[in-house]
Each structure stands twice: as structure tokens, then as C-alpha cells.
Amino acid sequence: MAPEASAPRRRLVRFVIVELRLNGRTVRDDVAPERLLLDYLRERHGLTGAKRSCDVQVCGTCTVLVDGLPVSSCCTLVADVEGRQVLTVEGFAELSEFERFERAFADHAALQCGFCTGGMLLTAKFLLDEDRACTREEIRRGLAGNLCRCTGYHAIVEAVAELADVSA
């Protein structure tokens, strides 16, 4: 006698409800528990300023600010930002202070291809908000987690130094 065919296994899809402040607005979504913040921002909200590159917290292209701190969204679960404030480069661009950053980066030619720019800008915002950019060496150390293949960093350091009002 042939064994009975078992019913097809049904895959259980589980979701968690997350609520967070995204660029100043409260959002509430059902997400899979393993959903990465980077994918959530890009796919669910169309916020593509954070880029996928290394997927191991090395390059900084996926940087967002969570409660004001730089975070690699490629390795952060959406569930881990429940109840927190997330600022992307798109949200930063809506703030009045962004114009100063934009002008300084443009004036110093601190951006070229733009792939790293979002992470650089948000990290610079963090450094300035926390008064961690008092010298060029502190700026260099503060930006160390963000890789740029185009500028050679000098222009970016100079732009942040201007923003921090760091003299020679």
C-alpha cells in the first residue's frame, strides 16, 4: 500500500508591527522579524539615499541616524528601531540646517559620484550635533567608518571642518 500523500506544508509567515518616527513622521507597518532596516527604507518607503554595498558595517553607505546616532541600516533589523527616531538623508534634506551642509560639501568639492554622500552627511551631522568635530583629526576619526572611492577624503574633511568652524 502506498503511503498517504501528506498535505503540503504551509509556511507560516509571521509579522511584527513596528511603529517608529521616520524623518519626523510616525509610521506603523507590519514587517517580517528578519527584515533589515535598509530594505524596509528603500522598498517600503522609497527612501533610496541609504545604499547597499558591503552588508557588513564597513563602508557607511547605508548609514542612517537612529535617535541621533549613526547606524548601519544593512545590519539593523526594523524591529530593533521600534519606538525610535530614524533620520535618513532624505529627511535630513528637509531640515533647515541641511543647506549649510550642502553648500559646504559643494564648495569643497566633497562629493563626486554621490554613493557615499548620504552616509558622510549624516555622520557629519552626528559629529557636529555631539561636538565631536573640534579638530581635523577628530573629524577624520569620526568619518573613518565611511568609505569614499572618489574624493580622497581631504575635501570631505575640509567641508566638515568648515561646518564645525575648525581653523587650521
List keywords for this structure.
168 residues, alpha+beta, Ubiquitin-like (UB roll), DNA polymerase, domain 1, five-stranded mixed sheet
**Number of self-contained structural domains:** 2
CATH superfamily of the largest domain: Beta-grasp domain
Major sheet: arrangement of strands? 2-1-5-3-4
Number of strands: 5
Q: How many helices does DSSP assign?
A: 6
Q: What global shape is seen?
A: elongated
Instruction: Characterize the biggest β-sheet.
Output: 5 strands, mixed
Distance between the termini: 88 Å
- Name of the level-1 CATH class of the largest domain: Alpha Beta
Rg over alpha carbons = 20 Å
SSE layout and pairing:
Layout: E1 16-22, E2 25-31, H1 37-45, E3 63-66, E4 69-72, E5 85-87, H2 89-93, H3 98-107, H4 117-129, H5 136-143, H6 154-164
Parallel strand pairs: 1-5
Antiparallel strand pairs: 1-2, 3-4, 3-5
Helix pairs in contact: 3-6, 5-6
Describe the structure.
The structure is a single chain. The mean pLDDT is 93. With 168 residues, this protein is an alpha+beta fold. The chain is elongated, with a radius of gyration of 20 Å. Helix content is 33%, strand content 15%. The chain has a five-stranded mixed beta sheet with strand order 2-1-5-3-4. Helix 3 packs across helix 6 and helix 5 (136-143) packs across helix 6. It has helices spanning 37-45, 89-93, 98-107, 117-129, 136-143, 154-164, and strands spanning 16-22, 25-31, 63-66, 69-72, 85-87. It folds into two domains: 16-91, Beta-grasp domain (Ubiquitin-like (UB roll), Roll); 96-164, [2Fe-2S]-binding domain (DNA polymerase, domain 1, Orthogonal Bundle), CATH 1.10.150. The protein is built from six helices and five strands. A hairpin with a 2-residue loop joins strand 3 and strand 4.
